[in-house]
From TrEMBL:
Keywords: DNA-binding, Transcription, Transcription regulation. It comes from Tepidimonas charontis. It comes from the Bacteria. This is Putative HTH-type transcriptional regulator. The keyword Transcription applies. One of its GO terms (molecular function) is DNA-binding transcription factor activity.
Length: 164
């Protein structure tokens, strides 16, 4: 981690804010701060696209994983999205009540249930996927395709470590 922000003031004599706003140089030297700001910027474009479908980002993520991984279990969803099982229960229940997913007996584990999208769920997911993809257009992200690929690779390295 960069604990020596070379562009940051060495003392507290500088004003907290200027006419241009607060001094955020130290925060802007942090990976987490920049990743969060980028995520918020993108989510600001994604939410209005998902809203007409009645989807939140977490709903879209769960529905997409189920659509791309027929028979996935709740445990696998939790691991893939790094969410706790109690937080997933309500999402799965809501998607099921809307008729977008269904539970089936797991073929090899009697204790688990396999999750599958329904035809209606597949249609909604495909539409949502196209809308979310459009929200990551270069006009929105200000990244070239090579920069986008590199950024995704680097972010995956941060959260996956050696598994990236």
């Amino acid at each position: 981690m960069n604990t020596d922000c070379l562009s940051c003031p060495a003392d507290n004599t500088n004003p907290v804010a200027t006419d241009n706003g607060p001094d955020t140089r130290f925060l802007e030297s942090l990976i987490g701060y920049n990743a969060r700001r980028a995520a918020l910027a993108l989510i600001g474009h994604v939410l209005p696209r998902l809203e007409p479908l009645g989807l939140r980002v977490v709903d879209f993520s769960v529905l997409t994983l189920i659509a791309h991984n027929p028979g996935i279990t709740s445990r696998q969803l939790c691991a893939a999205l790094d969410i706790l099982p109690p937080n997933l229960v309500g999402v799965v229940r809501a998607l099921e009540q809307r008729g977008w997913i269904e539970r089936r007996d797991h073929p090899s584990d009697r204790r688990a249930q396999a999750l599958h999208v329904t035809a209606a769920g597949a249609a909604v997911q495909a539409q949502a996927q196209a809308l979310v993809s459009a929200a990551e257009h270069p006009d929105v992200t200000h990244l070239s395709e090579d920069e986008r690929t590199q950024l995704i690779r680097l972010l995956r390295k941060v959260y996956l470590g050696n598994r990236a």
